[in-house]
């Protein structure tokens, strides 16, 4: 399988090759033969395509431009100061404190309320085959103000062309809300449980940069959808043990000017959503070990 996720670089590129001029071709030797321990052969194509579907075009573009021409893209590796390092590791305790606070339930109720007001539209959107469009649509429905929500409802049949475009280059997550004890960034993830997928979790440098803020807390709001519609939601810390154990780091970013991206194994999200008594569990030691790993990339 050869696509933007499974090639190292372009062997032949156009003059002035850059992120805005990406004409080129690749040789057979440019195809990645093994991806995160998975052989690139027909028996694994479904699994590999699930991984590919969870990545953004922009993420792969940055890597391909960098490895092909050594042109430095706009995104660069975040190098934290000593004080920022302390704040990054302190984000684990901030997460522990937040998930046991009233603010956590206030945020969860807020997101559930937003989900409830457009649950019928979310169910319709879950039928869209294109995972990128489906995800953008549902994120837009939940985070939209009332005027935008009415527009989306009226345009639901043609949303592939009508979706609002948000500039997320400097942001983390889809929904931000500040509390006295935290500045929260929440990424909204819809999981259609009868479809396999490995959605993008976060851009590593963007994540580290935000965790270097003194009150930052990062969470995922998972929306579980089955044949009958929404069956459960979960507001999950990025440091929840099940997630930490099921994060996929794209190791072929090694040597690039950024650390790359992390994906979540879809089966782990299913496990969380099927747990009717879900509670966040954070192991500080494992979380800090994972942070050290991300910083080492």
Low-confidence stretches: 165-170
Please bin the fraction of helical residues: 40-55%
Structural class: alpha+beta
**How many domains, in number, for the residues?**
2
Main beta-sheet strand count, sense and barrel state: 4 strands, mixed
How many individual helices?
12
The ordered H/E elements are: EEEEHHHHHHHHEEEHEEHEEHH
Number of strands: 11
Radius of gyration: 19 Å
Q: Determine the mean pLDDT.
A: 83
- List the quaternary state of the chains: single chain
Q: How much β-strand is present in the residues?
A: 15-25%
Written description of the protein model:
By secondary structure, the chain is an alpha+beta fold. The protein has helices spanning 45-53, 57-69, 82-99, 102-117, 119-125, 131-143, 146-154, 159-162, 204-211, 241-244, 266-274, 284-296, and strands spanning 12-13, 24-25, 34-35, 38-39, 175-179, 182-192, 200-203, 216-226, 229-237, 247-249, 261-264. The protein starts with 11 loop residues before the first strand and ends with a helix. The model is unreliable at 165-170 (pLDDT under 50).
Q: What descriptors fit this protein?
A:
single chain, 297 residues, alpha+beta
Write the SSE topology.
Blueprint: E1 12-13, E2 24-25, E3 34-35, E4 38-39, H1 45-53, H2 57-69, H3 82-99, H4 102-117, H5 119-125, H6 131-143, H7 146-154, H8 159-162, E5 175-179, E6 182-192, E7 200-203, H9 204-211, E8 216-226, E9 229-237, H10 241-244, E10 247-249, E11 261-264, H11 266-274, H12 284-296
Parallel strand pairs: 6-8
Antiparallel strand pairs: 1-2, 3-4, 5-6, 7-11, 8-9, 10-11
